[in-house]
Automatic annotation (TrEMBL):
InterPro entries: A_deaminase_dom (IPR001365), Ado/ade_deaminase (IPR006330), Metal_Hydrolase (IPR032466). The keyword Cytoplasm does not apply. Its cofactor is Zn(2+). The gene is add2. It is an enzyme of class 3 (hydrolase). This is adenosine deaminase.
């Protein structure tokens, strides 16, 4: 199979787009939000799961429209369908392999697969077996890419569901697999009403074990959620974090006043895993031009650009970058800066991060012009 067949351009991206050739990093990228529609159709048929439509392209449209509907019930239904077909080791391995190959097609050289093992136990898997299956899939994708002369490195972000009462067990799971592909921990799910501090025992265990943490915060809830994530639960990165702007007042383009938390986030360069298209779907902004990402970038915050859920938002890192270039005036230097931010804050050892920046990012950006 040719490299072009294995790595077709992401949906909505032209093969000739120079942005596609840029080396990229994807820190906020849900495994269960990035399945191929054709794979969902095949796996659903195997397990007898009823889908809203049976044609892969029609299903792609259904996912995008349901996620963009403004109806939370419809949005959450999209994940019911993807998780339903990810309940066996074979399915998890396949999804993880394809997820990795799709990253390569997008020009991504480092990606963290964010997913919640506790949601994949419906057919008898243990959480450990589920993590091992995903790891086999990620490694298979890396090997296929290498055979085709392409490079990618992946890791797992083991996620607990914040509305559940299982976070300490999931944290212990992540620690068991820290030498087997697990690079970090997260909590996800309904943010408003489920503060990070409710899972403090898990975060304390991870902190004592020197294990990296990112926390969904500042998306559906505001500054208090971000404060708890950083100052109480020791998060090294913030998943989304767009609502940090609520701690900033502006009297003009160059006249802003930072609150205590915003100052801390800026001064300590706490990375913000921003996901523009996804944030539009969840109501953080009405249009990409109004999204806080450009304001935060221009004022020195450690901004990164991510897809969140590739299927639900019908997006990719390249597509997010293209939106920012075409509609927000971003230039190549801006894209390089946020990509260096992302790789610099990846849950990798320092020497690996520095090597990837020197060997992959810098020459990759130097070879592309807009």
């Amino acid at each position: 199979m040719s490299s072009e067949t294995l790595f077709p351009a992401p949906s909505g991206v032209s093969e000739s787009d120079p942005l596609l050739r840029l080396p990229k990093v994807s820190l906020h990228d849900h495994l269960d939000g990035g399945l191929r529609p054709a794979t969902i159709v095949e796996l659903a048929a195997e397990v007898g799961h009823q889908l809203p439509v049976g044609d892969p392209e029609e299903l792609r449209v259904w996912f995008r429209e349901a996620a963009s509907s403004g109806d939370l019930v419809r949005y959450l239904e999209t994940f019911d369908h993807t998780i339903a077909v990810m309940q066996t080791a074979e399915a998890l391995e396949r999804v993880a392999t394809e997820w990795t190959l799709d990253q390569v097609a997008d020009g991504v050289i480092y990606a963290e697969a964010r997913w919640a093992p506790e949601q994949h136990l419906g057919q008898g898997l243990t959480m450990d077996a589920a993590v091992e299956a995903v790891q086999r899939g990620l490694q298979a994708g890396e090997a296929i890419a290498a055979d085709q002369g392409r490079f990618i490195k992946t890791g797992q972000l083991i996620t607990a569901m914040r509305h559940a009462d299982n976070s300490l067990a999931v944290a212990e799971l992540a620690l068991r697999h820290r030498d087997g592909g697990a690079v970090g921990f997260d909590i996800a799910g309904a943010e408003d009403g489920f503060p990070p501090s409710a899972h403090l025992p898990a975060f304390q265990a991870l902190h004592r074990a020197c294990f990296p943490v990112t926390i969904h915060a500042g998306e559906a809830a505001g500054v208090d959620s971000i404060f708890e994530a950083v100052q109480i639960c020791h998060a090294q990165r913030i998943g989304h974090g767009a609502r940090i702007v609520e701690d900033i007042t502006s009297a003009g383009e160059d006249d802003i006043a930072l609150g205590r938390l915003a100052s801390w986030i800026l001064d300590h360069q706490v990375p913000l895993e921003l996901c523009p298209s996804s944030n539009l779907q969840t109501g953080i902004a009405a249009a990409i031009e109004e999204h806080p990402i450009t304001f935060l970038k221009e004022h020195g915050f450690a901004v990164t650009v991510n897809p969140d859920n590739r299927l639900m938002s019908d997006t990719s890192v390249t597509k997010e970058m293209r939106l920012l270039v075409d509609r927000c005036g971003w230039e190549l230097a801006d894209l390089e800066w946020v990509t260096v931010n992302a790789l610099g804050s990846a849950f990798l050892p320092l020497d690996e991060r520095e090597r990837l920046i020197d060997d992959q990012l810098v020459p990759g950006f130097a070879a592309v012009s807009l």
